[in-house]
Hints:
Number of helices: 5
Radius of gyration: 16 Å
Largest sheet: 3 strands, antiparallel
Low-confidence stretches: none
Strand content: 15-25%
Amino acid sequence: EAKPLAPFKKLKPKELREMSKQNLPGCMFGLLIPKTAEEMRSGEFGAEWLTQAFHAAGTLAKDNRVTKLVRAEELPIKGFDTAGGAAMKMFLTVKYLRQDTGLHTELFCKYPYLYEEHPSSRQEVSGYNDVDGPEITCAMRLENLFPFPT
């Protein structure tokens, strides 16, 4: 069961910069969160971490697991093929121990820019405003009601 998000706290640039250097557990499920596709592919995360995350969120049955992370590919953030501008995006392809019609193998991830690479964008989205919280809460609580597959 997800814990509710803590109330939003504005952060000054120095505070956000210092927090961004840390890999803190997420407030809803208490898991560390990869910040890049490279981290997602690492031994610290990968298929085992995805299994833990999907179990924690109730997305994946406890007797099933992600057996392989086939692809973790970040989408371009500059140039003709730019994939939006509010955050980083990544495509994931996974394999499960047991495939189920309700389980997608092609996944889309959206996550904050690294502060070190995009300080002004990260400050605007995560430091001054609570852009992340409502979007995450909406996706978690309402996506099953959307009139299209999610």
